[in-house]
Amino acid sequence: MEDLLEKIRFNANKRLNIPIGKDFQREIQRFRNFLKVENHRLKIFHRSGGSGIEVCRARAFVVDELFRYLIKALSKVIYGKEIEFDELPFALVANGGYGRSELNPYSDIDIMFLHNLHHPNHPQLKPWVDIISRGVFFDLGLKVMHTLRSIDDCIQIANSDILTKTSLMESRLILGDSELFDKFQKELYEKCIRGKEDDYIRERIADQAARRAKYGNSATMQEPNIKNGCGGLRDFQNLRWMVLVKYRVNTLDEMAKQELISVSEKKALEEAYDFLLKVRTELHYQVGRQMDVLIKRYQPSVAYRLGFKDLSPSRRIEEFMSQLYKHTRNIYLITKNTEERLALLPQKNAVLAKSVLGLITTKVHIFDGFKIENNAITYANSRLFDDQPRRLMRIFLYSRQRGIPIHPELIQLIRRKIHLVQRQFQADPHVGETFLQILNERGNVAPYLRQMHEVGLLGKYLPEFGRLTNLVQHEFYHQYTLDEHTLMCIEKIDAIWTGKTNVDKFYTALMKDIEKPYLLYLAMLLHDIGKGAGAPRGKHASVGANLSYAVAKRIGLEETDAETLRFLVENHLYLAEFSQRRNIDDPAEISMCAKKIKNGDNLRILTILTVADTLGTSERLWNGYKDQLLQTLFIRCDNLYVKSLNSVETQILDREKIVKSLLQKLPPHHDEEAVRIHLKNLPVRYIYSQSIQQITTDLNLVYEFLYNQAFSRNKALYPVISWHNESNKGFGEVKICTWDRTGLFAKIAGSLTASGLNILSAHIFTREDGIAIDTFYVTDLQTGKCPTKKQREKFEDILKQILTATGDKYTIFPEKLISEIEHEILKQRQYSPYYQVTAEERIPTQISFINDVSDNHTVIEIVTEDRIGLLYLIAKTFRELKLDLSIAKISTEKGAAIDSFYVSKTGGGKIISPEEQQYIKSRLLKVLEENALNSITKS
């Protein structure tokens, strides 16, 4: 390091000495050249393996040297001679990260001109201010933030703003009046810190909580904020600042010497901080500007430059990110535990905070080797786990049962004794029973599992779960590592029970009826363990099911519970996929779903798992539409268990019974014969799936459409359209009644997209007399909310033009209108969707044909990159392939479209022939691939 600094010092002296009399503006190129050379030197040093801290300190040293020679040159301009730095009318002070001598390539450079003059326009200071304001630093390509302050100014602002106070605490003299700087430091401590330590710590903790909430409350985000995220650089710095204020200790060495942290913690923090600085430096180089969020796009190249050379980008990212997560978790866990042990964090119970400081004493209660003292559980002697390792699990049950926190010193001891968790411990029936007791209290499981994971017990006891620790998920819609995702899911289950989430109370009611809550929580804990075992893509549920059965037997579950757990893990995705991809209006498909799930308790558990798994992946993936689908599916399956699966088909197919029931509930103005004709002309799934309100709306649409045919010739070709916004659930329903024709679905889908609307799902019903009643569920493409009035009007205008166009209006689009529609769709691509894939993480298109879920239709499942106009493109291709589309189930998950289409050949019939399937698949693949490349190019 000293050799590097000496080279920088030598180069500065060689290049930056400007003789008196030379025009400073003409000599400014010297400084630019110096910076260019040193920036290149540091980049080489960094990429040849230089430590993160050394590179950042060297960068700060480069800026120091530049300022020294710059001020020296300016003094010759202002005074006509070179003066000593102590003679300057100010002290040039580095603040913030620059004050710590930590600068990444494009970090802001904060400096302060500290003066003791009456005002900043004083004749002694004004020439310097004038030169600075003319942009000397800007001319050099530096982002320098400068302030002019007296000591009184510093004291005043430090006492009103914690961020400025912290920045000033890290001040470092670059050059100038050293006596003035020393006086500033003393007064800052006496007037801003002494006696205000607790207030400062309280404000820092509040700032930390707000920062984590803003940037992600997890140390294992898939796109972490290296500086401000949980376990990032700021967490480490925050600890240092608080320890400095409270204990006047400023380095990790001093903290370890005073036993504020252990030697192993000191080493882990040093390695983690250095690694994060290296990552941030490389990220700056990759982007060419200041950037703190390590987005997926840059992860492969950052990893490669930091020495992760695997030729497979996914394995390279996995190795690199796992290393990164190890360090961010270490920073998070060590700083959190240190803050708690040093009573820096506000405790859940104020008594505990006082007890850690030794301010009060209360009666001591001893039990099972532990003791409750000052309302916290600690240890009676440090060998209690050596004497009986079972206590490692029991302590968490004791804490939950008593509602009393585990003392930070005991947490430290547990960490040191995790090595006692061996095979005998893992298979101990007593430990298993204790673990299940921890899992069996609805709404109060997540905090204890998270704490067990943080100390290393959970992954050691359940190695199948332990393999998920810091494991990167390559699925496009996940934002956490697998272990963090799982714990987040369990937190969502707790929140559903306690009502601390925005999901419908419907799910809370379901949890009340779950007979064995531990099966729900255990299934959630183990639902992704197949991924940790290296299961092939799409097979993790079946692999995880077998692993979970082995876990169940090892921890002592009875055979029936073990089989139930296996079933739950294997089918944890089933309800989400079924509700979003299958026709839940078809009695036969509902019957199939209910038979697979077997009983009501399985149904309740799988329903809660579905909601929690989605929310624990990303809350933006859950919406009112998915909620409605899942609730509908649950109710219909649950009804079958009540009515008995054997008799349900007979009941549903009793059309006359259902028709009579509907006639009794419909408004009186409806003609009975017209209602019978309407229902007779539609398939049984229509009667089964539509509510009285929906059927009433449909009848009104049909009446108006037929009236136009008979009595309003100028409107005969117009579709009749009805809108209804589900404001509470955030989507709109649009119904279109018109004559059926080839390509009708594509025309409607294209019109909706061109109007700026996103299609969630579609139901297509065509009467035997040729009247189509199509229902689309849509949202605003930009906001994800209900359609606006302007969008509704635009859609109606476009659709009417298409359906009343001249030419063969029943079979094809007129070419001009095709062009106009597709132009409008392309215009919508200026609005970025919630998630955009990049060329580096393309989602491969998958197309499959399913013929065993519907009596009359083939289900074509398409998984591909989501893009604006996708449904229109698919529907248009179906029209060209002469396929009739009956139902479209649309689902999007952060970049991926996962769609199911119920289709049949024109004139009826499934697509059975492998040759036909291959032809259709190849056509779709070609169209989708061409469109995907075009989409990326245009965006």
Please give a structural write-up.
The protein is of the alpha+beta class. The protein folds into 6 domains: 193 residues, Beta Polymerase, domain 2 (2-Layer Sandwich); 140 residues, Four Helix Bundle (Hemerythrin (Met), subunit A) (Up-down Bundle), CATH 1.20.120.330; 105 residues, Hydrophobic Seed Protein (Orthogonal Bundle), CATH 1.10.110; 161 residues; 174 residues, no CATH class; 102 residues, ACT domain (Alpha-Beta Plaits), CATH 3.30.70.260. The C terminus is likely disordered. It contains 44 helices and 16 strands. α21 crosses α27. The protein is 57% helix and 11% strand. The longest helix has 29 residues. The strands form 3 sheets. Strands 8, 9, 10, 11, 12, 13, 14, 15 and 16 form a 9-stranded antiparallel β-sheet that branches.
In brief:
By secondary structure, the protein is of the alpha+beta class. It is 57% helix and 11% strand.
Descriptors:
single chain; about 950 residues; alpha+beta; Beta Polymerase, domain 2; Four Helix Bundle (Hemerythrin (Met), subunit A); 6 domains; nine-stranded antiparallel beta sheet; four-stranded mixed beta sheet; 44 helices; 16 strands; globular
List the helices and strands and how they pair.
Elements: H1 2-16, H2 24-47, H3 52-79, E1 91-94, H4 96-99, E2 109-115, H5 126-133, H6 136-139, E3 144-150, H7 151-158, H8 162-169, E4 172-176, H9 178-193, H10 197-215, H11 233-247, H12 252-257, H13 263-287, H14 299-305, H15 313-341, H16 350-356, E5 365-367, E6 370-373, E7 376-379, H17 384-387, H18 391-402, H19 408-416, H20 423-426, H21 429-439, H22 446-455, H23 457-461, H24 463-466, H25 482-498, H26 506-512, H27 517-526, H28 529-532, H29 540-555, H30 559-570, H31 574-581, H32 587-597, H33 600-617, H34 624-643, H35 648-652, H36 655-665, H37 672-680, H38 684-689, H39 692-711, E8 720-726, E9 731-739, H40 744-754, E10 757-766, E11 771-780, H41 789-803, H42 815-828, E12 846-850, E13 858-865, H43 870-880, E14 883-889, E15 892-893, E16 896-905, H44 914-938
Parallel strand pairs: 2-3
Antiparallel strand pairs: 1-2, 1-4, 5-6, 6-7, 8-9, 9-11, 10-11, 10-14, 12-13, 13-16, 14-16, 15-16
Helix pairs in contact: 1-2, 1-3, 2-3, 3-13, 7-8, 7-9, 10-11, 11-15, 13-15, 14-15, 15-19, 18-21, 21-27, 22-25, 25-27, 25-33, 27-30, 27-33, 29-30, 31-34, 32-34, 33-34, 40-41, 40-42, 40-43, 43-44
